Fold this sequence. Notes:
Layout: H1 3-25, H2 31-36, H3 43-54, H4 57-70, H5 75-99, H6 104-111, H7 115-147, H8 152-202, H9 207-212, H10 216-226, H11 241-255, H12 259-264, H13 271-289, H14 292-307, E1 311-316, E2 323-327, H15 335-341, E3 346-348, E4 365-366, E5 369-370, E6 380-382, H16 387-394, H17 399-437, H18 443-466, H19 472-496, H20 502-523, H21 525-528, H22 547-565, H23 571-580
Amino acid sequence: MSQVQLWTYIVVGITFAMYIWIGYSNRVRDTKGFYVAGQGVPAIANGAATAADWMSAASFISMAGLISTMGYDGAIYLLGWTGGYVLLALLLAPYLRKFGKYTVPDFVGDRYYSQTARLIAAIATVIISLTYVAGQMRGVGIVFSRFVGLPIEWGVVLGMAVVAFFALLGGMKGITWTQVAQYVVLIVAYLIPAIAIGMLLTGNPIPQLSFTFSDIIPRLNAVQVDLGFKEYTQPFQSKTQLDVLAVTIALMVGTAGLPHVITRFYTVPSVRAARYSAGWALLFIALLYTTAPAIAAFARYNLIDTLQNATVANVIEGEKQNIYELQYPDGTPVSWATSWQKTGLLAFYDKNGDGKIEMHPGAAFEGKNFKAPTDSTNEVYFDNDIIVLANPEIAQLAPIVIALVAAGGLAAALSTASGLLLAMSSAASHDIYYRILRPNATERQRMIMGRSMILVAILLAGYFGINPPGFVSQVVAMAFGLAAASNFPAILLGIFDKRANSAGAIWGMAVGLGFTLVMILLMKSNVIFGTPAPIIKDFMGISAEGIGTVGMIFNFALALIISRVTAAPPPEIQELVESVRIPRGAQVVEGAH
Length: 593
């Protein structure tokens, strides 16, 4: 067993023991504790839990990897996700908390006085959460595969078991306090390598400053241009301008429609606490998001500097691919490269037989398979999702730091997965089973149904984690697009448009969600259904990550038009909308429940 593996077992074991203890200590037996943590979570704790819930494996593991390989174009993930959280915190969160419901379908059902609207919102919540949690399971599988030595498939299974424990035992209360601990782990794990590598490369320990006020970017540009790549600071033109805009909007408004994040604002005691917790969460999120571009640039530079012209010392025949044992110029083994090749997420091909590895523009890793290795002179192929996790190994940091990053990646994935599973469970058990199918169900029956739905959701999430339709960030971006096309218009109009009625909401959500889901399935048919190529490449130049913007436009248009040509909402609903927008107090108009 290597030192890295040993330290990983120790650090991950300690953090998991802490999570389990917290979850067990905060176990619940009633629905209010299960769904909204008894509405007694302090603002700063809820801010940390919200940050952990929202900053998933996509933020921790995948985002910096995409920025590293996409360069300028990768900024769409930073702009979309951070801008979206500001939108959620300022525009929606306080009003939703004042409404006083457990879930998004609860809000939609009561605001639009319709069980059909509630059902569509619940179905949307399940689809969004399932898509989102698949990305988290993929991230968990990658971490376990590299640092524990399990195949990715078994890593996903182990992650499923851990998440099931948190979600089944403690509900929202247990998940909330576990997420507070997970935020501490993930942010420390993200910042320490960034600080250390910043010092090594620039002499400045503050990643944001070492990235901005040093010569690291000119050095990176010089290296890239020499190898035939575009400059890191120039648009890579991997996406059309229309698609860049569509993806950014989908990520932004999708954030404001995510069911598991919105539910977090119901766990605090008051509207005032919801506002404060939103502010704390924004601060906690900013710590990671302002560091991500620095990590992306550092990783890109170290990757090229390490692998370009590395000597092939030996080639070992493997089942899936040959393992290239590489050496640095001084003869030292490039041990991290050998370890990552065993996961199947990194591969080398010495095409010209010169005994050296060369990086050039060319084919990339896509989904679970490499593209044909003969289509360029490039000899290095890697999955974007390994960039952050491999970064401290590439920089040759201490094994304990490498292990800490693994624990941070798991914390990010597991915290979000827990929240998503609870959102799916509450949509199925509370909004469909209790509010529609069996209004007379006892508390015990509702709890049993909620926990049963968590198990079903975990099994589905595990399948898509093993068979992902893209990189972690890409899968998560599709979930945001689905939220943008379904929940966001209904919530926004429900708060700010008294004239929005049930017919408009139902048609808007159904068409927005249906169109977006179908387009994603068609555009990703090659990885979801195994077709030779995508049935549809794009929609007017817009990719699967941005198609939610089009669905959102359809939703808004139908909701507004239909609401104007059909009967207005009842007077009590219009009064409810007015009362929810009053800044002070947490009272709700009688009858809202």
